[in-house]
Amino acid sequence: MSEPTIFDKILAKEIPSEAVYEDEHVYAFRDISPQAPVHVLVIPRKRMQSFADLQHADPSVVASFMQGVSKAAAKLGLEEGGYRVVFNTGSDALQTVPYIHAHILGGRKLGWPPG
């Protein structure tokens, strides 16, 4: 794998973050540049580059990651009002870190279309 990303450094506690949920499979933390009142990133502890890599991943790893996203949203209290989960994949989608991550956005009514 390539050089450590900012997310690898966050998992290694080399860079501080504000955790909101974590378990043995995922780590969820507040985005440093929030785009909504609630903006959290969820990363798997097992590194994959992008959403496109999920097609080749062990289904149990994928399930654990997706459940972690749902558990983080629940812990944030977003279930009643709703929330959006976004995966940016590749340069056209403006993925800036080559490490799969879900954005959980909520805390207000979100507009559509998003981009």
Topology summary:
Blueprint lengths: L5 H6 L7 E4 L3 E5 L7 E7 L14 H17 L7 E4 L15 E5 L9
Antiparallel strand pairs: 1-2, 2-3, 3-5, 4-5
Structure in words:
This protein has about 120 residues and is α+β, with helices and mostly antiparallel strands. The protein has one domain (about 5-105): HIT-like (HIT family, subunit A, 2-Layer Sandwich), CATH 3.30.428.10. Helix content is about 20%, strand content about 20%. The chain is built from two helices and five strands; from the N terminus they run αβββαββ. It has helices spanning about 5-10, 60-75, and strands at about 20, 25-30, 40-45, 85, 100-105. β1 and β2 (about 25-30) form a beta hairpin. The chain starts with 5 loop residues before the first helix and ends in a 9-residue tail after the last strand. About 25% of the residues are buried.
